[in-house]
């Protein structure tokens, strides 16, 4: 991270003597929080109306799926169709970890000129070289949800507005100007001792290791704006011209036309939570699922003015193509696996069955044992002659929450998690990806990354933050006992180990080699999971119902 505060500020654009830094001082032009309308009703608004393409004037159909009306999520408890041991009994007395967690979360608050604007990535910043002293956009999401669920939306509003201002600044890396819509990966508050004034410093990827692009930040920002609106019932924030513009800029970036033959979004490695080289370049499922979810959230938030309407049309078209593509080509279950195994290659024309010319010999050995008879998931990546068969947790959970996964696919994902409990949950939830890259593969794919050695960090490490996503997905599929059991496992260690960032080992038994302690999203992820288990109606904040207009093309195979 460069530590340059702003040198000067001109025409609303940031200039700095260090061309590679994106530091900024907020001055009088800064959007004043106090001038923004306070939420009209601050009580929790738990309802989750059906918001879908049907909002575009088409009639919604009544759905028979049990979770189509998320406000009824509470009625999903308890669930009986389970093969996971441990019945669901809600605890009337909060676990002692909960109060400790809240204290730790509050300690992580970051203030800018007296206002809370985010949470620090980790309070344990013993190693000065690293950038855990910053507010990361993706890391703040679980914190924001915890505050929203606790009826404290102000910090979330402040964060949304502050990051919006950062988006509007000129962004430059070396001599290259970044696109207008790019949201920062992270920012921090810098105290300028000379002027005795606080300034903000943002990182758009130029200071991150490997100069990785934070493609997920803009998507999380839109998803958070929708969560805020849903939970407070306050539509005035999203309706602000500044927020509409921020959304337009993000959408312009990801909806723009190029040379692509796929509706998915082409990305470089390290563009998301996995922000180091891990072979996720191409069309990583994490980004595709977040893209899909952000588009669906944007549909609910965009104003129907001229510009808004244009975006709504573009989004509708893209969602159609995107859901078709992902549900057809990224989905893998035992039937699909068998089909790939028997694929012919070198097929041309529209009649090709093996559309991407995936060579069956590229199927890794582990997949045949990993794939249960009942169950399936969205694979990590699909592009010409390349299917990355690895399981990635975040993308699959977001696929469930956004209803990118059909109800059958959602159930199959949860079936897979239950069948592969040891591999994916083990002794600490949850594996960020499975399996680990080892030996030669690790050398070639990670570039010999010493932080991403096998079963560590992004390479098969276990990340407690993912608990909130698993919990939301479990509740949405009517199987909260899965999350309950995983949460109980996490509770045996999280506080004792001082909220590590990640755990290592096949079972997640060991505190990660280089894991920070007091990692904020580990704390917030746990708290959000607990709150949702207590009150499943909170799910509406982070889940979207199935859109009947996005016709499923691929049902779970009949053989299941
Ligand atoms: C690591 C993680 C990234 C996270 C950051 C801050 O770089 O890989 O996902 O945002 O730490 O916690």
UniProtKB/TrEMBL annotation:
SUPFAM superfamilies: Six-hairpin glycosidases. Residues 1-36 are annotated as: Disordered. The keyword Disulfide bond does not apply. Its EC number is 3.2.1.26. GO terms for molecular function: beta-fructofuranosidase activity; endo-alpha-N-acetylgalactosaminidase activity. It catalyses: Hydrolysis of terminal non-reducing beta-D-fructofuranoside residues in beta-D-fructofuranosides. InterPro entries: 6-hairpin_glycosidase_sf, 6hp_glycosidase-like_sf, Glyco_hydro_100. Keywords: Carbohydrate metabolism, Glycosidase, Hydrolase. Invertase that cleaves sucrose into glucose and fructose. Belongs to the glycosyl hydrolase 100 family. This is Alkaline/neutral invertase. The lineage of its organism: Eukaryota, Viridiplantae, Streptophyta, Embryophyta, Tracheophyta.
């Amino acid at each position: 991270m460069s530590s340059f505060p702003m040198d000067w500020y001109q025409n609303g654009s940031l200039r700095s003597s260090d061309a590679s830094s994106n530091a900024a001082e907020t001055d009088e032009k800064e959007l004043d929080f106090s001038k923004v309308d306070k939420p009209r009703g601050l009580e929790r608004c738990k309802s989750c109306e059906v918001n879908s393409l049907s909002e575009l004037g088409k009639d919604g159909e009544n759905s028979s799926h049990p979770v189509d009306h998320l406000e009824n999520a509470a009625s999903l408890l308890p669930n009986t169709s389970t093969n996971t041991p441990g019945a669901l009994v809600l605890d009337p007395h909060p676990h002692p970890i909960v109060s400790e967690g809240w204290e730790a979360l509050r300690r992580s608050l970051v203030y800018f000129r007296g206002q809370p604007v985010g949470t620090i990535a980790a309070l344990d910043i013993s190693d000065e070289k690293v950038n855990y002293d910053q507010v990361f956009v993706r890391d703040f999401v679980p914190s924001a949800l915890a505050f929203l669920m606790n009826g404290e939306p102000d910090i979330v509003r402040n964060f949304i507005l502050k990051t919006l201002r950062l988006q509007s600044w000129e962004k430059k890396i070396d001599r290259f100007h970044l696109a207008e819509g790019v949201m920062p990966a992270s920012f921090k508050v810098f105290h300028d001792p000379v002027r005795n004034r606080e300034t903000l410093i943002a990182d758009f990827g130029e200071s991150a290791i490997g100069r990785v692009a934070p493609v997920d930040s803009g998507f999380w920002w839109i998803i958070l704006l929708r969560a805020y609106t849903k939970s407070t019932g306050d539509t005035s924030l999203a309706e602000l011209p500044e927020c509409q513009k921020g959304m337009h800029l993000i959408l312009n970036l990801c909806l723009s036309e190029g040379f692509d033959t796929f509706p998915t979004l082409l990305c470089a490695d390290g563009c998301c939570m996995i922000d180091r080289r891990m072979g996720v370049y191409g069309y990583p499922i994490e980004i595709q699922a977040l893209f899909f979810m952000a588009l669906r959230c944007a549909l609910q938030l965009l104003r129907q003015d001229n510009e808004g309407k244009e975006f709504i049309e573009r989004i509708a078209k893209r969602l159609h193509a995107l859901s078709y593509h992902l549900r057809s080509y990224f989905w893998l279950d035992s039937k699909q696996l068998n089909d790939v195994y028997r694929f012919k290659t070198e097929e041309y024309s529209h009649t090709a069955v093996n559309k991407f010319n995936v060579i069956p010999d590229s199927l890794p050995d582990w997949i045949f044992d990993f794939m249960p008879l009942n169950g399936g998931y969205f694979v990590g990546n699909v592009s010409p002659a390349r299917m990355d068969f690895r399981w990635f947790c975040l993308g699959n959970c977001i696929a469930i929450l956004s209803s990118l996964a059909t109800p059958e696919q959602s159930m199959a994902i949860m079936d897979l998690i239950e069948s592969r409990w040891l591999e994916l949950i083990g002794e600490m939830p949850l594996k960020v990806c499975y399996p680990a890259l080892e030996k030669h593969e690790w050398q070639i794919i990670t570039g010999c990354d010493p932080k991403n050695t096998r079963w560590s960090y992004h390479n098969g490490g276990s990340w407690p933050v993912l608990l909130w996503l698993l919990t939301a997905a479990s509740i949405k599929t009517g199987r909260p006992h899965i999350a309950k059991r995983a949460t109980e496992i996490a509770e045996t260690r999280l506080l004792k180990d001082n909220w590590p960032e990640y755990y290592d080992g096949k079972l997640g038994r060991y505190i990660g080699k280089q894991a920070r302690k007091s990692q904020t999203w580990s704390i917030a992820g746990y708290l959000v999971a607990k709150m949702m288990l207590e009150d499943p109606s909170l799910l509406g904040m982070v889940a979207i119902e199935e859109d009947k207009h996005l016709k499923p093309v691929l049902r779970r195979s009949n053989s299941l």
